[in-house]
Design a protein that fits this description.
The protein is built from ten helices and 13 strands. By secondary structure, it is α+β, with helices and mostly antiparallel strands. The protein folds into two domains: 236 residues, Antithrombin, subunit I, domain 2 (Antithrombin, Chain I, domain 2, 2-Layer Sandwich); 84 residues, Alpha-1-antitrypsin, domain 1 (Roll). The longest helix has 15 residues. The chain is globular. This is Serpin B11.
Length: 370
């Protein structure tokens, strides 16, 4: 998933995303997308496969350990309670238009391998449909992701919305003391710094310096779990995109237990990732056109529909006590306008007003929203 992460580094000063959720979403779509679109998607998936191969057995283990039951409802706070009782939870659901039927093989695979629940929705009632989906996501992420779908994202042509969510909350094995947190400078460049609440503690943990890559690495474990935060701190000249490409198994192999004076910022932020546009930039285009390739998902009139939107929202909060993180992804399948190229004026552009003889009457540029 480092291809996507590298592109996000170009867009945002701070990045948080769930590569697992994006991978899982695309894997679920691959179950039903055929033809050239399926080939495009599978080719891209090979580029972003997790470092460890996730077999059917691994999916079954993930299912047993972390995935919430497919039939779990959000009524009476049951899903929220279940999420709070575990360190990590994963949930998947298909919201389907009343009267629309999914291919049996597609639905069976998603229910068996991904514990995917099914819920009928009246997408003609846009606000109500968005509320239903957002309520499920809120419950699955303990209220951290609150509005992933807007009423404008769905409508009478929407056939289904496939959603997944992940929630994590754990305490550090070696907690920081708030008394030791001080305002310190955070250097965003060699010339510029900003104040930040810097946590501090001396602890014995896995640590290493990768001379070849000029990167310090520390592994901060959480209590009662095999999960840990791996923090990679490059020297000034190092590139974060290059650091993100390092294989975790190679990095971990170079770590040894050391007594380390750890200084880590306390921080919280969120990100909204337009996965749709990122996939287009990477050459995945067929799934966004209306064609027959979705006939492995829908039973009827598949050629009239395509994927109109894939979006992810993610959140993280790192404190002296521990870490809380959440993410959700939504994929909308509905009637789409077929196109060969896209022109998205979401960056500075030049413009002019001219006549048929190319006489410029006005010209200008737009570089910043007002």
């Amino acid at each position: 998933m480092n291809i996507i992460f590298s592109k996000l580094l170009e867009q945002f000063p701070n990045v948080i995303e769930s590569p697992f959720l994006i991978w899982e979403m695309l894997k679920m779509l691959c179950v039903g997308i055929k033809g050239e679109s399926g080939i495009e998607l599978r080719t891209f998936l090979k580029l972003i496969e997790p470092e460890m191969e996730i077999t059917d057995r691994h999916l079954e283990e993930l299912n047993l350990r972390y995935m919430l039951p497919a039939n779990m409802e959000y009524t009476n706070g049951h899903m929220k309670t279940a999420a709070n009782q575990r360190i990590l939870t994963i949930a998947n659901r298909i919201f389907i238009k009343s009267g629309t039927r999914l291919k049996g093989s597609f639905l069976e695979t998603l229910q068996k391998q991904y514990s995917c629940g099914v819920q009928e929705v009246n997408f003609g009632e846009r606000h109500q449909a968005a509320d239903v989906i957002n309520k499920w996501v809120r419950q699955a992420t303990n209220e951290r992701i609150t509005g992933i779908i807007s009423p404008n994202d769905v409508g009478v042509d929407t056939q289904t919305v496939l959603a997944n969510a992940i929630y994590f909350k754990a305490k550090w094995q070696h907690q920081f003391d708030q008394i030791d947190t001080r305002q310190r400078e955070f250097y965003i460049s060699a010339e510029q710094s900003l104040p930040v609440a810097m946590m501090n503690q001396t602890m014995t943990v896995l640590y290493g310096y990768l001379q070849e890559h000029q990167v310090q690495v520390i592994k901060l474990p959480y209590r009662n779990t095999d999960l840990a935060m791996l923090v990679m701190l490059p020297n000034e000249a190092a590139d974060l995109a290059q650091v993100a490409q390092l294989k975790l198994c190679d990095v971990i192999d170079q770590l040894v237990f050391r007594k380390v004076d750890v200084h880590l910022p306390r921080f919280t932020f969120n990100c909204t990732v337009n996965v749709h546009n990122l996939l287009m930039e990477c050459g995945v285009r067929g799934i966004f056109h209306a064609n027959q390739d979705l006939n492995g998902i829908l039973t009827e009139n598949a050629s009239n529909f395509g994927i109109s939107k894939i979006i992810q929202q993610a959140y993280i909060n790192v404190t002296e006590e521990g870490t809380e993180a959440a993410a959700a992804t939504a994929c909308c399948i509905d009637g789409v306008v077929s196109f060969e190229e896209q022109f998205i004026a979401n960056r500075p552009f030049y413009f002019c007003i001219k006549n048929s003889h190319n006489l410029k009457l006005f010209e200008g540029c737009f570089r910043q929203p007002i």
